[in-house]
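Annex B. Sample input.
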Amino acid sequence: MQMKDRVLILTGGAGMVGKGILRSCHEVGAKVVIVDQDEEKISAAYDSSNIPQGDRLSIVGDVALESSAETMVEQTVEKFGRLDSVVTCVYDSTSGTAVEVSLEDWNRCLAVTLTSTFLAAKYAVPAIIDTGGYGSIIAISSVHGDHPSDRYITYAAAKAGLNHLVRAMALDFSGQGVRVNGISPGGMTPLDHTPDLEQNKTIGIHYALGRYPSVEEIGHTVVFLASEQSGGITGQIITVDGGSSVPLQHTLFNRAVQSVKDDPERFGITP
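Annex B, continued. Sample output.
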């Protein structure tokens, strides 16, 4: 899949998942604008992918603010002359139950994790249509949007809302040439990290593939959804979780129990 000179905005591009997306998009020729809150981390992300200075645009800002969304689109079009896709890869979360989480933390999580994608689309969609005629919005969601964990209400609610925002915007914009999709990761290994084999065996019992997916595999999925090869796909949430959500939970639990029985020493259990 080639995306030479296609221009993407990537919010949260200096984070672990963001760097995997950055590398994957750069490898197919796309120019990637990074929006994050730390200039040094943005520079380090660009450096890690050996991206030339002329192909960089760093935007420091809070994605929960409307002004940041407006600025990132304006500066991108000003520098590169076009905008083809926006990838939103940000979240905020506070653990706790509804009794424990403050209203301030609740509002902040929704603003960063959910509202930021709404704001990105608000300003990006017209720019995509005006400068390229077609393109895509891709939101990085989470398996927790469908399968919440205990004491994780802010994140689960925000990601569930993000999934439906993707579907609703797909209905609104796909007829104008802008497709909208999401990706739900579930457990990831960092860029260029090879897990300890024994650790991977222990973790792998929860994954159909026997391992975590990598952040670069998330990036490859972004490339596919941003490219013309996925032209028939919109309004979808693509799960990239190593197959951990495929079986019923009790199936994974039974597999884990059997693994412990078969090799208890691997799990630190002495007969």
